[in-house]
Structure to design on (174 residues):
């Protein structure tokens, strides 16, 4: 087995809870948070987690950077599909005032004892780049993103001393 294969095998078996950042560094608001607070967070983040309260950390939803367009557009410029008029009400002019008014309620999660391989499979299946990490009671305890997984893999490669050379049109000639 090559060094790369060993690194990947080790990487795949790591628990997501072992690489998730501290919860105090995560962008989190409560259901009743004003939209202006959400927008302030989204200036430097790609998402904001929405919890019922900071005491119980029960995950209620997520607001993604890209979703803010619906918040800022007037309701008539938000395309509603048959059976989905909720986007119309996610506009500030449509009456949205708080985080719960604009959040996506169907959040992709993964359990805190899941492995990196489990996370990668879920991300690929749902075509997403970030998962909320929850405990057995559905409380938000962390997050894992594709960027974090890439960083962890590169860290393992460096620590293990594995040399990975790629040949092809995208690599530099020496």
């Amino acid at each position: 087995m090559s060094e790369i294969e060993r690194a990947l095998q080790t990487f795949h078996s790591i628990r997501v809870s072992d690489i998730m950042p501290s919860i105090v560094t995560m962008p989190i608001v409560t259901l009743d948070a004003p939209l202006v607070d959400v927008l302030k967070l989204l200036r430097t983040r790609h998402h904001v987690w929405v919890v019922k309260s900071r005491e119980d950390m029960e995950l209620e939803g997520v607001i993604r950077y890209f979703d803010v367009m619906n918040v800022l557009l007037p309701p008539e410029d938000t395309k509603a599909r048959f059976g989905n008029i909720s986007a119309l009400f996610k506009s500030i002019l449509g009456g949205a005032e708080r985080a719960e008014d604009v959040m996506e309620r169907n959040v992709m999660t993964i359990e805190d004892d899941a492995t990196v391989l489990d996370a990668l499979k879920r991300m690929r299946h749902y075509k997403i780049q970030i998962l909320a990490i929850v405990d057995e009671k559905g409380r938000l305890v962390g997050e894992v993103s594709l960027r974090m997984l890439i960083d962890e893999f590169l860290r393992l490669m460096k620590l293990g001393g594995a040399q990975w050379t790629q040949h092809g049109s995208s690599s530099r000639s020496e």
In short: The chain has a mean pLDDT of 85. The longest strand covers residues 59-64. The chain is about 30% helix and 15% strand. The helical segments are 3-13, 35-42, 68-72, 99-102, 116-126, 146-160.
